Amino acid sequence: MSPDHVKRIRPGLSKDQVRLEIGNPHFSEGLFAVHVWNYAFNFYSGKDNEYVTCQFRVNYDSDDRVTSTRWKNPDCNNYISSAAAVTVVPTVDKSYHQRVTLSSDGLFAFGKYDLNDLTTQGREKIDGMVAKIKQENVNLSYIVVTGHTDRIGTETANFTLSKARAETIRKYLAQQGLDDKLIRAYGAGASQPVIQCPGQQITPQLVQCLQPNRRVEIEVVGET
């Protein structure tokens, strides 16, 4: 990674944009609503094999947008600005971040949400994800399960269904041995569609078109 990646971190960037530039934070900052990311970079000093470790802080607002950045030691900014700072050697990144999107149509029967309604196919997909977490010995920070529906039906009904399905997946993950205290479940209803489909009349074509919106997203964050 070159110094330019660090220099491109500026107010207004989203967390995903920051992650693309300099990766996940190197220190655990908490579980939810985190507004500070901290990094440690090793800069070549220009003298023999000497490197200097600099801590870099990125601050976010409530919308997860960068508000400011700061070096713990202001002199570290010289390594970014200096033409001699050709190489930035980051500390070993042991962070683990996985986002899995599962189709609700493959997880539950139509309109269902109970644990008993979870399909065999759905269980197998979740089991595979859990097995990977255990195989890689992930030290979990948190898991967020978010349920989504299409726009068919009332706002209240869709929110209730999405929350119930997310809660069912949360319970199933806990049954597979993941720490229940680290798993949160949320319902988004139809508020975050990934596809827009024309028409208001409910037809088989509309139901099929809206299929990608009926989903459950599982985000896993931790360290290996």
UniProtKB/TrEMBL annotation:
CDD domains hit by this protein: OmpA_C-like
Domain spans labelled OmpA-like: 95-224
Localization of this protein: Cell outer membrane
Keyword Cell membrane on entry: no
Species: Collimonas arenae
Keyword Signal included in the entry's annotation: yes
Gene Ontology cellular-component terms listed: cell outer membrane
Pfam families in alphabetical order: BamE, OmpA
Coiled-coil annotated spans: none
Name of this chain's protein: Outer membrane protein A
UniProt keyword annotations, A-Z: Cell outer membrane, Membrane, Signal
PANTHER family the UniProt entry points to: LIPOPROTEIN YIAD-RELATED, STATOR ELEMENT OF FLAGELLAR MOTOR COMPLEX
